[in-house]
From TrEMBL:
Gene3D superfamilies: 3.90.1010.10. Belongs to the SufE family. Signal peptide: none annotated. InterPro entries: Fe-S_metab-assoc_dom. This is SufE family protein. Residues 12-131 form the Fe-S metabolism associated domain.
Length: 134
């Protein structure tokens, strides 16, 4: 695996993309860094409703800090999940609720990939991330 991008944050990597193709390649590369969920974790309860692709999101809380595991059957969505989770992983629910996730995502050059149906799915993911109850 090419580690030259490891020093750049995910946000910086995506902002550095100058074309739709470059953004796509970056998302596919990022998708490979997301650990796969087991078939036991891919439950209806963990499935995010409203996504065009199948997306599963597990939210765990430990000492007030949230940790996320996610997966999708679509490579592009897996890359988008990596980008989203990079904004919230290891933060408290209070901190997560202070973040304007929609504005943060808008800065990541993803709009050309978020069709209206994908955008609905991403919004459902953001809602689940920011929900106070599991």
């Amino acid at each position: 695996m090419n580690n030259s991008n490891q020093t750049l944050t995910i946000k910086e990597q995506l902002q550095a993309c100058r074309s739709k193709e470059e953004t796509f390649k970056t998302l596919v590369t990022l998708s490979k860094t997301l650990p796969r969920l087991s078939s036991e974790e891919k439950t209806e309860e963990n499935k995010v409703k409203g996504c065009e692709s199948a997306v599963w999101l597990i939210v765990e809380e430990s000492n007030g800090i949230r940790h996320f595991n996610a997966d999708s059957d679509a490579k592009l969505m897996r890359g988008v999940l990596v980008a989203i989770l990079s904004l919230v992983e290891g933060k408290s629910i209070a901190d997560i609720q202070q973040i304007d996730l929609k504005a943060e995502l808008a800065e990541l050059n993803l709009s050309s990939y978020l069709t209206s149906s994908r955008t609905n799915g991403v919004l459902a993911i953001l809602e689940k991330i920011q929900a106070t109850k599991q």
